[in-house]
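Pilot study result, target chain (353 residues):
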Amino acid sequence: MPRIKLPALLSLILMSQILPASELTLQHHGVILQYHHVSTDTPASTSVSPEQFTEHMQYLAEHHNVISLQDMLYKLSRHQALPDNAVAITFDDGFTNILENAHPILQRHGFNYTVFINPALIGNESQQLSWQQVKQMQKDGVWFANHTNHHQHLLSRGNMSKAQWLANLKQEILSAEEKLQKELGYSLRYLAYPYGEYNSDLQALVKELGFIGLGQQSGAVAPYSDMTALPRFPAAGVYANLKTLKVKLSSLAMPSLYDPLNPELALDNLQPTWTTKIDTSDIRPTQLACYFQGKKLEPVWEMQDVFSLTVPTPLSAGRARVNCTAPSKQDPSRYYWHSQPFFVPTNDGRWLD
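Predicted structure:
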């Protein structure tokens, strides 16, 4: 894949946000998977067993085209079609069990993948890879990208002003990128948000720095996706079930036309209502279904392509999301998918792990 210089990358990011969804084909959509641990000895909520991971990879080998994250984002930024049913594989945090348990399986299939690491933790915590191991994996074709330097809750401000908070974030992001450049010889300028948490101010900073941001909310990606908060499907814990994962792997990016909602909620706005406009050229509005914590929500249609949603109960501290899906008219076996995340601090301003 050609290396993109920063000014060209910035122009591609801006260009990718203005292409009408109606001009795209189903081959302009891809899926990014997100894993943490591949182990039976780590927290269940962020882990997939080696046996489950083997099953996932075998299914991908038989039914999908696994491509590198770089190739996927490069093609989408240039509005180029992807291979049929394209999937990119990513891991967050540089845990040693990725090398021990996942890497041999991925190598056996010839799958490229990307690991988002915290440079300040590499070689300094028992569960983390060493730089020697990172460089050996790099020789095997593995790519590494920015997960910030220390894996902190980025929305935590304490007593800092907004300007101080943004300055600290900038330093946290850039110092990690500089370390990656020094150790590995390249700078992808991809940023995976720790805990998947971000807000509109952080997105603006990411865009200003020329980075592509990746979250942990579910959904597919397309040229019109927000390149400061790309969705990824978590595939561990309760989401490791291959039966439900199959539907997600064939999903399409919901063509939302309004500016995205700020996912960070103030404590006086814990039951938000928001309005969304979608391109309905390949979607029947009557088939749109939205869910919150397993319960179905009823969209209120204001126009044929504009609807509003309200969270049914006030949100508590932590992370939550509303998912909306609708089958494609071209291929009813594939579903457009959109996830609206919400991030809520505790009453004293802390952020929960």
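One observation from the pilot: The chain has two domains: 6-251, 273-344. A full batch analysis is planned for the follow-on phase.
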